[in-house]
Amino acid sequence: MTRTQGGKRTRRPHGPPPARRVYGILWGIMETTQGKTFVPWMGWLRLIAMAMVCICHAGDPLAAFAGPEDRVWSEIYGSFVRPCVPLFVMLTGALLLPTREGFGGMARKRVSRVILPFFVWTAVYSALPWLLATLGVARELIQQVFFPFASPLHTDAPSIVRTFFLSIIQYNQYAVQLWYVYLLVGLYLFMPILSPWLRQATRRAKLVFLALWGVTLALHYWPLALEALTRTAWGAAFCGDYATRFLGTSAFSLAEVSAWDAFPILGACDWNTFGGLYMFGGFVGYLVLGHVLREVRLSLGKTLAIALPLLLVGYAIVGLGTHWMWNRPGCTAKMMEYFWWFCSVPVAMMSAAVFLLAKQISWAPAPILALLKHFTRCGFGVFCAHYVFVTGAFYLLRDHLPLPALVPTAALGGLCVTWLLVGTIERLIPGARRFLG
């Protein structure tokens, strides 16, 4: 094609150089929502949180089946990545609070975006055991490799429908990560209530809220405080009275209580499970914490001085506590998670530290920025789909890598495969993102 320039006919260039065309295509594929400013450190934080989730699940086979010598690596890695879910919630608070959307707006713009993918992935995971069995995979292999915590494992066709509808009222036992969707929907619906207060609240008021939330995090360790009291004469008498009056037993014995949330405090009782500070508890505190920390401006030096001690102390408490708990006689599956509890003081310390450190990451050249934008676009689908790929990668690599390298390698390998799969499907099938997340 030609054009006139200064009375002469010249040939129009055929387009940008090949390298620029490649970058343009990559950018076009990975471009995220139009009209919104992409914040690089938030992209990094989302990717860090997702990598932590994958490391957490890559260690599940060790926690479920390994002996004490090998299981220690699940303790080491699993304790370090406990901020994974809190970071997702904090990022939600930093991005959306205070929102001006009402219930209708939140339902249309936020809740609807996660509900349909939730149904799709619930159906996929409900059918997956049956599909694998139909393809000839041994039941024991399906259990061990893909669904180590599913009990019982159903591989017959009629169970698919039952599993699907049971998963709607709780979550899919074959896709344990989907419990987060219930939490996320609840947080979205609470944001229109929380936001008006945040818009007019002073920083001091927000810090008071976080302090009360911190008390609820500390109450998580109330059973351990009671157990420590039994080592003194007065404490033993105190715990004996506590057990008689509030636990319905004549003697206090922590080892005999299977439900570790059965230690009422601050007004909780048989007819009321909500203690006096219940309204300040739970993941809503992480929403507010993310909102507050986003506004904090610290230099790199101050960030390191604050964040590193928080991270190391929190990790020490979680890691050593987990090791101690896992080696206690009579440790149950619920007790194994005790120091991994997301709503606890050391995990909150670690989560705040990682959040502050991520805020200092401003480096993101164009290709990396494009990848971060792409992950922001399809990250929910990756979250929903990653579990079987991560655990599958663990068993695929376990005979080829030493245990210290196996867990992170399986996690990152499973993450990359899931990301590539979800991204490819969304690229090839228009509108697939509505269904995959």
Fill in the keyword field for this structure.
437 residues, 19 helices, disordered N terminus, globular, 2 strands, two-stranded antiparallel sheet, mainly alpha
Describe the protein in words.
The chain is an all-alpha fold and 437 residues long. The chain is 68% helix and 2% strand. It has helices at 18-30, 40-58, 60-65, 68-80, 84-96, 103-134, 139-146, 158-169, 179-200, 203-218, 222-229, 233-247, 284-294, 300-326, 333-336, 345-359, 366-397, 403-428, 433-436, and strands spanning 2-5, 8-11. The chain has a two-stranded antiparallel sheet with strand order 1-2. A hairpin with a 2-residue loop joins strand 1 (2-5) and strand 2 (8-11). The longest helix has 32 residues, at 103-134. The chain is globular. Residues 1-8 and 10-35 have low confidence and may be disordered.
Question: Percent range for helical residues?
Answer: 55-70%
Sheet with the most strands? 2 strands, antiparallel
The number of helical segments is 19
**Structural category:** mainly alpha
As a whole number of angstroms, the C-alpha radius of gyration is 25 Å
* Percent of residues in β-strands: under 5%
Q: What shape does the CA trace take? A: globular
Task: Tell me the distance between the termini.
Answer: 43 Å
Low-confidence stretches: 1-8, 10-35
Please provide the ordered H/E string of secondary-structure elements. EEHHHHHHHHHHHHHHHHHHH
Mean pLDDT: 85
Strand order of the largest sheet: 1-2
How many β-strand stretches?
2
Task: Give a summary of the structure in a few sentences.
The protein has 437 residues and is mostly helical. It is built from 19 helices and 2 strands.
